[in-house]
Write a structure and sequence with these properties.
Layout: E1 7-10, E2 13-16, E3 20-23, E4 37-38, E5 44-51, E6 54-61, E7 65-72, E8 75-81, E9 92-99, H1 108-120, E10 127-137, E11 140-152, E12 165-175, E13 180-189, H2 204-207, E14 215-217
Antiparallel strand pairs: 1-2, 2-3, 4-5, 5-6, 6-14, 7-8, 8-9, 9-13, 10-11, 11-12, 12-13
């Protein structure tokens, strides 16, 4: 079993617990050649990334673009936003992160709990954390949940940083044989209340329908 530091990523900040922090600079050369194939109706596009030992494919709405792509040692991260948006100002964001060799070192549920704790540090309002339990994604065991903040600032300092926004997303920690993956899709909008979040256990499936098409192959 490898000895690994617990590693959490929020926005463009790559954080190694307990004390090592590095800000990934943008833009960086893309590390992956992304294949893009339109579906028969042209409404979605298939993406494929090589992340450590796996090729990971998934579907996003047509027009979404890669906004960030970086690798730091045993960690990989890619972020996608809709056309016309950026990491400074986005309404929707899809992110996939890979952690090489971490699968044996931490349980999926504990990883997501740790992420929620770290996420709270960036929240100026109240945190929403709805644990949805175990599931299967891409044929692999996963622990999933909904994490959000009723009022938070844009970490990148874009135009939206001048006003508070609510942010909420669906998160899934996926375990492979050796590696761990964190996938999430988030949205930003008006400030909301903790008792009435815009994403919950009853309505999240439509929001993440594209995300559930993820496939892993060697």
């Amino acid at each position: 079993m490898k000895a690994c530091a617990t590693l959490i990523i929020i926005g463009g900040l790559l954080s190694f617990s307990p004390s090592f922090n590095v800000m990934a600079k943008e833009p960086q050369p893309f590390l992956n050649t992304i294949t893009a194939n339109l579906d028969s109706e042209g409404s979605s596009t298939k993406k494929e990334l090589s992340i450590f030992s796996n090729k990971v494919s998934f579907v996003l709405p047509t027009g979404w673009k890669m906004a960030f792509n970086a690798e730091r040692g045993t960690m990989y991260k890619a972020e996608f936003v809709p056309a016309g948006e950026s990491l400074s100002d986005w309404s929707d964001l899809f992110c996939i992160q890979g952690f090489e060799g971490l699968a044996d070192n931490i349980e999926s549920a504990q990883f997501l709990d740790n992420f929620a704790d770290t996420y709270q540090q960036s929240c100026q309002g109240e945190v929403v954390y709805n644990q949805l339990g175990m599931t299967q994604i891409g044929g692999k065991e996963a622990y999933h949940g909904i994490i959000g903040c009723t009022a938070m600032k844009n970490l990148y300092g874009g135009a939206t940083s001048r006003k508070q926004q609510g942010e909420i997303g669906y998160y899934a920690v996926i375990k492979d044989t050796d590696d761990l993956y964190l996938m999430h899709k988030s949205m930003r909008g008006s400030v909301f209340s903790q008792s009435n979040p815009p994403l919950n256990a009853s309505n999240h499936r439509d929001f993440i329908s594209n995300m559930l098409t993820v496939k892993f192959s060697r």
